[in-house]
Amino acid sequence: MSKQTRYEARMPDSNGYIAYPDNEHEIWQALYNRQEGNLPRYACEAYLQGLDHLAMPKERIPQLSEIDKVLRDSTGWKTAAVPALISFEKFFQLLANQEFPVATFIRSKEEFDYLQEPDIFHEIFGHCPLLTNESFARFSHQYGKLGLAASKEERVFLARLYWFTVEFGLIRSSNNQLKIYGGGILSSPGETLYAMSDKPLVKPFDLVDILRTPYRIDIMQPVYYTIDSIDYLDEVVKMDIMAAVNKARQLGLYPPMFEPKSKAS
Asked: Could you give the CA distance from residue 13 to residue 197 in angstroms, rounded to a whole number?
């Protein structure tokens, strides 16, 4: 989270207002319009309910205060404007305080389908609808508290849990239908269609397996993990996650399902 980024976040003024140029509102609108066609078919019900509840504008980037009002009333959460990338320490600190970090820049047209850095469309459109859901909000809060108390080595393993749930998690319902709840997928037009195709490997949730699974942030994911409903995140909260981290550390990582990143990239 602390590496260099090509983007610079737009920070709020003294009144909390963030001014975006028209071309950035146009990118938001184009991203929203494209995903609006995909999501009724692919997104989980809890996400769709949250999206409806937030009622965010389609034609412009919303102000964080608009999102905060709904989140506070729903689950007690709020957003926090941050630079494009923040440290693990700051990330866990915010989640433990029920504040969701939002990088206040938006991707370029050249990175419309997939973006390595988390932009405001990823954060607001991808994640905030589910922060109106009690189970998702409780999991996010507990995750922040665990991460804040964890060692540097433990945080590397905890990052995989977040990656394969909050960012790239899927739901496999009782009728074997796949739906998306991970914000990294929901905010990416390209990855939405990829995740729902027959290309990636899709595995049931297993905490230790997830903690042992390597990932790369700059590619489409070769593997996803499923839960059976968003409420299952309450069961994950009850698990001894740090004991699973210790077990995963002892067992070691699985071989990666992707090519190593070249130094040139």
From this structure: 43
Contact 183, 130 (CB under 8 A): yes
pTM (2 d.p.): 0.94
Assess whether pLDDT exceeds 70 at residue 247.
Answer: yes
Residue 92 has pLDDT above 70, yes or no: yes
Cα–Cα distance for residue pair 259/261, rounded to 1 Å: 6
Mean pLDDT rounded to a whole number for the chain = 93
252: left (phi over 0), alpha (psi -120 to 50) or beta: left
Q: Give the integer Cα–Cα distance in Å for 137 and 153.
A: 25
For residue 1, what pLDDT is reported?
40
Cβ neighbours around 55 below 10 Å, total: 10
Q: Mind giving me the DSSP string for 10-41?
A: PPP-TTS-----HHHHHHHHHHHHHHHHHHHH
Average pLDDT over residues 167-187: 95
The residues annotated with a catalytic role in the active site are: 122, 127, 167, 187
| Cβ proximity of 184 and 252 under 8 Å | no
76 in helix, strand or coil?
Answer: coil
Give per-residue burial for 156-168: e unless 16+ CB within 10 Å, then b: ebbbbbbbbbbbb
Question: Quick one: tokens of 178?
Answer: 């796949």
Q: Which residues contact 111 (CB under 8 A, 6 or more apart)?
A: none
Angle between helix axes 88-96 and 152-162 (nearest 10 degrees) is: 60
Report residue 129 CA to chain centroid gap: 11
What's the rounded Cα separation, in Å, for the pair 213 and 161? Answer: 9
Structure-token pair, residue 90: 């700051």
